[in-house]
Specification:
165 residues; mainly alpha; binds fe (ii) ion
Length: 165
């Protein structure tokens, strides 16, 4: 089975490819097809991290509170940008502005996760836990095809940390 950090990296690579695909998409139909799949994947990924990764990080590392606070704030900014794009006509200036906000917030966030959060988690979680969380991650995706049954909403970072520490 896969280690959860490898599965997260796979998703991050998919996000970078998704945004690159948007550069090549032409016309409303192509833009909609690429963006809707990418936006949904971003939402499911953040929800999966908030349910499966960060609660375990919070219980293990001294730096986890700050890292988690940053991550929830970033996830909220990405969710807000996705919601802002949904309120605009695909391909319009307002839509591109919101999509670019999602892109730049996401790029910054991936770097923080890859350079701070995941290294910290690897240091504090043994391979058995990483594999067990990897299995939970795959099950979560399997149980919520195309996000079925999930609702995506911003979370209060302080409350999240309190509830999951
Ligand atoms: Fe992530
Ligand atoms: Fe994240």
């Amino acid at each position: 089975m896969d280690d959860i950090t490898a599965l997260i990296l796979d998703d991050h690579a998919a996000f970078r490819r998704g945004f690159a695909r948007l550069d090549d998409a032409r016309g409303e139909e192509q833009l909609t097809a690429v963006w809707e799949a990418l936006a949904l994947h971003l939402e499911i990924h953040a929800e999966a991290e908030e349910r499966i990764l960060y609660p375990h990080l919070l219980k293990r590392s001294d730096d986890a509170e700050e890292e988690t606070d940053d991550a929830i704030r970033d996830h909220n900014k990405i969710r807000d940008a996705i919601a802002a794009a949904a309120a605009q006509k695909v391909g319009s200036d307002g839509w591109w502005k919101a999509v670019w906000e999602a892109r730049t917030e996401n790029s910054e966030h991936l770097t923080e996760e890859e350079d701070e959060v995941l290294p910290d988690f690897r240091k504090h979680a043994d391979m058995a836990l990483r594999v067990s969380l990897g299995a939970q991650w795959l099950t979560f995706y399997g149980e919520h095809p195309s996000g079925k049954g999930l609702t995506f909403h911003d979370k209060d970072p302080k409350r999240y940390i309190q509830e999951n520490s």
